[in-house]
């Protein structure tokens, strides 16, 4: 595989965050107060082991979006949602998320001088899952009710008080997320042939498609990728064509039974001649381990579904094609998963002699 | 505070990793095989709340090096150490670290097709601390002996087998780490007035000073910063002028009693007219919480010592000065610390009525 990332003269550029970088493509004005942690500009890492597994001169790149400030791609949408909330005079923001969204919402809201509220059902969520959001200063309200009722409360609060909803219904989230596509094109010089992406609420595949289309119209790329969306087999409503009542998968970040962006995701797939596929938890874990122990890239299990999908579909990739896989979250977000699924050697009680240690190491 | 990061035309640059970016300043040749995860190019985030606390037109920037691929600044040194090990024909690398170094060593070694060995004393280390390294494919050998004896074994293995030592004795580590200084100058357009940095083994302050001096000699900046090094009060040999037998601090990444780069760190301080100071665990925790809940930046406790030090020394900063604080690791590296020290509200059992929730929120 040939690297297209070489030979020129580089230096560390003063990256101003994704809103400043892509201002002309985003719904902001010169008076919008920009709340940024300099998110975006994440590495597009050439993958050698995946390219080798596929063969036929296919190039594979990993968009490592877990290297955003709070550790997930949610920062892309949140810099937009929080900046617009501040512009509109909100004093607080609110969501019903328990994972990456709540962490991103808390970090950006506090940076912007607003209060971040997280509403969850009582007894539903382990404290560990919320630790990051709490440290960022999220104020958590656990209500006596289920998750749907928590969502209902969140909407009513946003309707009746100077509080902005920043869950996936907030339209600015997708505007921010589409910049991931811009960055891929800026670095590769064109759109890839395939874009492999995990689907939960299906907002990210929708946003990437928006981004590619907008860049295409602006003349920044002269082709569009096939949008290849992957879901966990136990939470695959978009693959099966119907909602899943009790979604189950180890990939918690995409454990969603009735995606918010269902129609838009299907439209992206159809317009791009892409396709949707399910990957099993075993396939996700296999990809998770390959990424860590062969590429040196540690991601959330949900992120690994894009690579699991790529490996599943590898015989359908055209010879010489360029493929980009999106990794949405850093592996450090889910330390328990790493503890359970590391499969390397741990030898205990080894005698402290060089020849014994050498033998234990296979020398 | 005025942002110097604005107004120009940006796009996402194809960042090739720090060795390619700074090749002319590093001991690599055209035949050195570069093992990279596109580390470096980390954000230099303007800090508003710290600048406000200091006043007097002082500008403060946070170099968020926790956004390197494995979550810490160790990646800067490791891309160099592993690339050189590969060039020299090593089949394996070895270290006795249990924290960020072992994770970085494992990720880069596996990406470079080498085996990463980690030698630790039996029963000394919790599995959780090593989970990231194990998932990356580190092979751990726990020996019947103490930590010094583990270090002895590591050195003997490196002397007698085709195994490269990648702990802090490896000289290429500092070469890679000095690029942090290059990036600061590239983004600011000059060196800052103060550089605030945590000190454990004191390799990073040594490396930053090397970098600033080299860039100064190359005409890339026309001044040099005062090097302000900070240690935890319970592990402050450089401040007290003598080794600490039993170093104690919550900032585990700088819990070191006898720093490897002692002499070089003192030389950097003296040459730059800087100074060393101790900060208490309470001051470190306070900075850790301010960074998260006011700036939206989540770091390891050890990282927060640079900000704790800045706040401690704030009255000595010249009016109008530019200060850069180095945050060496991402907060997600230490989730237990976040769980213990989040101090925001968590209200349980709230009745599911809008007016009740609104009251709970203070509306």
Automatic annotation (TrEMBL), chains A, B:
The modification N6-(pyridoxal phosphate)lysine is found at residue 74. It catalyses: O-phospho-L-homoserine + H2O = L-threonine + phosphate. This is Threonine synthase. Its cofactor is pyridoxal 5'-phosphate. Residues 93-136 form the Rhodanese domain. It holds the Pfam family PALP. Its EC number is 4.2.3.1. Catalyzes the gamma-elimination of phosphate from L-phosphohomoserine and the beta-addition of water to produce L-threonine.
